[in-house]
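Exercise 7. Predict the joint structure of the components listed below.
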Amino acid sequence: MTTAIDSSILTLVTFIPLTGGLLLLLVPRRDRDIRIFSLVVTLLAFVLSLHLPVHFHRMQGGFQYEVNKHWISSPNIHYHMGVDGFSLWLVVLTTFLTPLCVLISWNSIHERVKEFFIILLILETALIGVFTSLDMFLFYFFWEATLIPMALLIGMYGHGRRVYAAVKFFLYTMIASVFMLAAILWLYSKVGTFDFVTVQRVIRGGNVENFGGAAIWLFLGFFIAFAVKVPLFPLHTWLPDAHVEAPTAGSVLLAGVLLKMGTYGMLRFNLGLFPEQSRQNAPWIIALALIGIIYGALVAMVQPNMKKLIAYSSISHLGFVVLGIFSFTAAGLNGAEFVMLAHGVSTGALFMLAGILYERRHTYEIAEFGGLATPMPMYAAFFLFIVLASVGLPLLNGFVGEFLVLSGAFAARAVYGILAATGVIWSACYLLWMYQRVFFGKVTQDVNNSLTDLSRREKIALWPTAVVALTMGVAPLLWLSMIDPAARTALAPFSQIVSSVVGQ
Amino acid sequence: MNPGGESMQSLPLGVDYIRFLPEIVLSIFGMIVMGLDPLVDEQRSQKLLGMVALLGTLTALAATLLMSQYPGSAFWNMIQVDSFSVFFHFLVIAVAALVILSSYEYMTVQRIRAGEYYGLILFGAVGMALMSSAVELVLIFIALEISSISTYILAGFRRREAISSESSIKYFLLGSFATAFFLYGVALMFGATGSTSIWQISQVLHSRVPLLAYVATAFMFVGLGFKVASAPFHVWTPDVYEGAPAPIVGLMSTGPKAAVFAVLLRIFFQANAPGRFWLIWVSAALSMTLGNVAALVQTNIKRLLAYSSIAHAGYLLIAFAVPQTAIADTGISSAMFYTVAYAAMNVGAFAVVSHLAGAGEHRVELEDYAGLGRRSPLLAATLTIFLLSLIGIPMTGGFFAKFYVFSAALKANLVVLTLIGVINSAIGAYYYLRVIVLMYMREPREETALPRVPIGVGITLAITAITTICLGLFPGRVVNYSLRSAHELVHPEMSATDIRRPSVIR
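Solution:
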């Protein structure tokens, strides 16, 4: 019984949103029904995805819940899915955030509602698929499939310069990912399969002809696709535009999940297939990550626009993830994965909070606000909680990940740790300063006096993020105990393996 | 041209006619359409003649099914029925059927008399079908002319528009020039090898490759390259596509193209014509680059799709650059898959274009597509599927086709050519995306109600869209079939036993 569930659970979780989206085509255009239907579908996917961590064999490094079926015989393509400690949590993060996106878009999307939720559900399937697929064709398939729904979300439901932002987003990521396609095809031409596990084994066995000369190009082919997605400085310029113009749900998924596709890809493919090249190229990658951390933070500091500020803070936080990955230490990898999850939850929540304010005032300009704590006390409390989580206050989720990454970075080279640690300070500066300007003091503009506090629906959307942020901070082992074996497996080919974090 | 002179006296076998049945059926129906035209009055003729023509294509599809049961050669080794020719028969006849379906309403809107129009489509299909089964260069030339002359006339069918006549004349003059090149190539090949039969050429070239054969190959490639609109023989394409009736562009850009690619496959892989590598390499790289770059600045949807078809010819040609070794199978089969995927998405895209064009085709600017997502969500969604497929986004046939071609090329170590292709498909994304952006993210320019989608166009769109998606999700069957055909093409002796049967029956 359990085996039947175990082998089909990933398929179910991945395709339930898509099925829901297709069924939605048949639902009549009554906006309320459509919203409720989407909420039910996304919640169903979330509940099912909880099966994954509950029945996961902890302390086991390999892939679990695997399903491997023939899809296309020539070229040799398999429907191969499976998760390990890294991808499992990213799947759950996706299914966790999407129902919240539905809730937060309840009233803010009021025209072309049906299309909106269909696109959202298709996007969810594509995102989950990226994390679950173990066949590189399937991976690329889902990877590219995320592009169109996201670009449509930005372009159809965004604000102001939405078309520009959507096209920029699309072109940046599309152009970069064709290099990954070329690399995948090259590997296929030599190995004869797209299967990640097999390709990894063959490469490690040294049985690929011409691998020595091509490896660096393959590494870069994968890396450029991921680096644009992360985004790594200097390829980040699409991100602020996309975020500022995107609707709230788009921003939440963009920051919460889409960016992690890049860092996940680095973990899985760059480290998994090209350990040698990863090590050789680590210095300049780390340098770019450090620049991203500090540059992102400094630019965030001077943003007059709340959403742009959060967008730049994402660049800074994702810099930590890349730093952790390329420190090649168990602490670094654990931390990188943990930062991904923590950032997904807290930045997702920040974007929801910004969106709530936008619904009331139709602006993100920080200067338009001031003293909001008086008319909106509940909102201010939530905002503060999430800001603190994002800043990295101990006992909240941001702290654990950043701490682990920093300790990994110190172990790799002290100067990395020192430079990155300044990023933590910067993030406290820009977020708290923003908080002060928006919430403290007297109400500066009369319109803001009449702002209503959180509605019940908004509270329902925000509570889960706060609870998860606290739980991740208090009991990180719930997560780390599954991440650590995956991290150790990923580090196996590297000579210096720092002792496991959990064991200590 | 058959050197076995005495064989000419014997009568063809009965089974030979079955191997030629689809062409016979199409010709008969074409003549029926032509004959009926003056007999029925003009109002009723549109529907009736269209139905007859459609029936003709469906019967021809059935005939192809029957033909596929009798593999072998016919008419003194002039025609070869193998999985390869059956594949292309299905493709071109299906394309003709879809174009006929999507023409019904178009003809009424444009006030074009139907008779010869449907007849010419059927005759064109005869030529295209024959091209895929002919294994005799002179017969290939005749088939090419049958198909070309039909399309020359069809291109000029919007008689009231000067631009359509321009299109027709341009196509005719340049096209005749190109076919002359092909014929010259055939003559040179005869001089070099002493035969015009693909088999005998292959055998001669197997033992020695005279210098003249290289020249012959180049000349034939000039002629055929013109027909598939590959650079540097592509200059006619945008003008002709812009002027020709939109459904006919859907036909021209898929049917004859697929058939000519079939001919190219036979000449290069079956007859072993020498020196193809650099010819193909340069032409493919040029086509992709010129097509995509020129498409970036187009404002007319028909011109945009014309440049896009040049680019796609380039992607397809990549598959032809694989060497004549074990991997030739993959190359051929990826080219075959590409023709199907391209036919599905392009016929569909042009069905949408011809539906929206309106009387006198005055709504063919990109701006006319603004806000289509609001005015007609379903039509916009269908066109989006085709455009995504043309970009090569997963879940569509276009993606798998490109993927398959690139994968075959990399298997043959054509790294640079693949990189050019990959980069080009990224550039190409921009101009297709522009149309999608216009449809969904801009306000409509005029708020006039769109005409209802008539049933013919509806069926065409449904079939092409479903095919596009299915080719993307479950390409297995088509790939396997094309692989088998490719194998038969390269190793004919292993599959069809009666190919070598004596052509003389006394």
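Discussion. Confidence is low (pLDDT under 50) at residues 496-504 of chain A.
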